[in-house]
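Title: Prediction job returns without error message
Component: structure pipeline
Severity: low
Priority: P3
Assignee: unassigned

Description:
Job completed but the reporter wants confirmation the result is attached to the right record. Sequence as submitted:
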Amino acid sequence: MRSIEEGIHQNDQRLELATFGMGCFWGPEARFGSMPGVVRTCVGFTGGTTPTPTYRQMGDHTETVHISFDPRVISYEAILREFWQNHYPNRDNYKGRQYISLVHYHTEQQRKTIENIRKEMETQLREPIETELAPFGEFTLAEERHQKYYLKRYPKALEQLAELFPEKELLTDSTFAARLNGFVKGYGTKDSVREDIAQWRIGTVEKNG
């Protein structure tokens, strides 16, 4: 299955990044992972000052989802709309900063885009949006058990996938795992996953595998 990932990522230099905090990071990773154009997802901690945060000792960090996407397939604007349309950005700081609404921008163009889409979403919500906006800094990857959380609730499927991905890191970091994690959470359909795979620049044997 390594050939599948090599085919998908052969133009990695063209990928862009997006980083969001929108509550517990399990659900957002599944949601974004189901979207065509999103190549990789992972979850972790950002925004705080506590050194080496962990899930149990997060300090002042925020749970975030980190996304690699292909702007030729999906725009940053579309990803931002998905972000704001699927959580309430003005809730109280329950558990401190762990679950706050947060957007980290990676470029100045992203910052400008965020401001524009925020105005659009404020019109839809009919109230000001309090999402915190900050430049991207350090990202600490969450423990392995939190990556592709919903997919890992299907151990038999993981056993089958182990034959294709002998190294766990290959599966966790793959587009295929991102799609499956979204699918088992209830995002997308089998047909949509098949249609997405059909667009990947990989061989016919791998597509049908």
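Comment from assignee: result matches the submitted record. The radius of gyration is 17 Å.
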